[in-house]
Amino acid sequence: MVKLSIITVCKNAENTIEKTILSVLNQTFQDYEYIVIDGNSTDRTLDIIKRYENEFICKKIHIRVVSEPDHGIYDAMNKGAAQSESIWLMFLNADDVLASDRVLDLIFMQCKKDSDILFGNTRIFSKIDHYDYVQIPKAANMNKEILVRMPFIHQSSLIKKNVFLNYIFDTGYLYGADYKVFLNAFLDRAVFQYVDVIISNYSNDGVSGQASNSLCEYRKIKKEANLYRRISIGNKIYCIYAGIWIWVRRIAKRNKIILKIFIKRQHRRFQ
Length: 271
Hints:
- InterPro entries: Glyco_trans_2-like, Nucleotide-diphossugar_trans.
- This protein is α/β, with parallel strands linked by helices.
- Helix content is 41%, strand content 22%.
- Strands 1, 2, 3, 4, 5, 6, 7, 8 and 9 form a nine-stranded mixed sheet that branches.
- It starts with a strand and ends with a helix.
């Protein structure tokens, strides 16, 4: 059994899959296996994956590639977890990369024996909106943050396989299945550990429309978990406050967009 399974799910990802594969292949840490779950791609994705299979084999790293239809990204991620033979799981999608060649070494140097879930920092960028910053989770406040929303990016986390299999991703959700796993693990007293490492680079392009949908799914997940019956009054108050603040920020962001559109239209009118 290896220490870690890195699971990449993809479909028609010929433009991005290579950089993901290389970020895994170039790791100095080698006690891992690589599992690629492809959703029956019709482009060059599989050709690119197969091009690197021998390089993994030469490094004595087991690589497993499965290509077949699935029922969405979370179904594919569950398939990858079911095929893994490791202690830890990491899900790295086909548009994300590990932040450096030493990431895995740095993570396991800090890992404590009793930890069930590890989470770290993420470099988030957008080529469309021209921003690039490092998201550092509020580790000291994680016990409250997770009651409201995902406190970290799942690509920058690892979860023990025996813990994950108690929950698995709920394929009834399009955006919030990862939050459901981590929230329920937290409520069941899984041990979370913050590692001060930039784990992955995450592109925020193309997901702006998911924000409101995620929040709606989060509400449903909390209701299913009977969240407000299981937390203290102080945490209930924090959840209400944080929820209001999230919506205020979203409304403010929308207003800025509306203002920009209005200014452009006015500029056109007076040209």
